[in-house]
Amino acid sequence: MELTRIRQLMQLAGTVLSNSYIGTIFTKNISTGPLKGVCVPFLNCYACPSAVFSCPIGTLQHFAAIRAIPYYLIGFIAVVGLTVGRMACGWLCPFGFLQDMMHKIPSPKMEIPGTLRYVKYLVLLLLVIVLPYLTAEMTFSILCPAGTLTAGLPWAIWNPVNPQTGLPFFPDGQGAIFFISLFILIVFLVFFILTKRPFCRIACPMGALLAFFNKYSMVQLKVSSKCDGCNICRDLCPVDINISMEEDSGECIRCLECTRCAHVKLSTPFSSDIKAQKLFRKAKLKGQRVKG
Is this structure's pTM higher than 0.90? Predict the structure, then answer.
């Protein structure tokens, strides 16, 4: 089975497994089971009717709002980041899967200026950390298009009464905010068709968090010295980067599509080329000691 098909199946599995709670149909409420205290390494709205796990960005906002340090979350993100970098973005994220699928819709295509990649770091700093810290509001979650699609819209359509408060899940006082978030979602949905993964590249704070670890993760991509600049890697890349020029890029989602080019290889600490380099360095060091 070809790489792209395997990746798509993994993305589908990530979508289904992280959103497999059906109890909402009977309880009219979200899951509050023990797994809800566990994060997944991608956006997965806590308020989604079918969500089984928690969203790391929602958790980070919560701790910022109560002005506490999320030790578990920091450790979780560090372990994921140092192990596979942004690989979850390319292989598991439901919202990334949606972007990949919608970009296949025939339409004129456009490129995103490279400078816009830095916006997601501002989103992470301001909407996820600073504003929740100052206002105790979950600022990013209120506007998040992934949350609007998987939680806001389902609840607005169904609109049952919350048994804990006796009020609809979206009382009138939140109507304006809901329509603003709906507008943001529609804008992104249009751009999903026109360009490669615009949300991942411009606005995703989870991608911004994991991007810090890409250079140091165990999963790396190496370009052969024989690379002839064919640009196949960029044509295949879901986030439109040229891996031959940006091997350590924080933008890379480790989807491995570029390895379909003969000049790009996956490299890990267990790869044969890495082992050979270590043996060479060890032998060289031993030789230097003998001479000394």
Answer: no
Q: Give dist(CA 260, CA 47) in Å, integer.
A: 38
Are 132 and 65 within 8 A, CB to CB?
yes
Can you tell me the mean pLDDT for 6-12?
Answer: 96
Spell out the domain ranges in the chain. 3-211, 222-291
In whole angstroms, what is the distance from residue 256 CA to residue 114 CA? 21
pLDDT tens for each residue of 83-110: 999 999 999 999 999 999 999 999 999 9
Long-range CB pairs of 160-165 (<8 Å, 24+ gap) are: 160/28, 161/28, 162/28, 162/29, 163/27, 163/28, 163/29, 164/29
Nearest to residue 253, comparing CAs of 78, 112, 93, 116? 93
Tell me the pLDDT band of 281, cut-offs 50, 70 and 90.
low
SS3 content of the chain, % helix, strand, coil (to 5): 60, 5, 35
pLDDT tens digits for range 67-79: 999 999 999 999 9
Residues whose CB is less than 8 angstroms from the CB of residue 120 and which lie 6 or more positions away in sequence, other chains included: 201, 202, 203, 204, 205, 207, 208
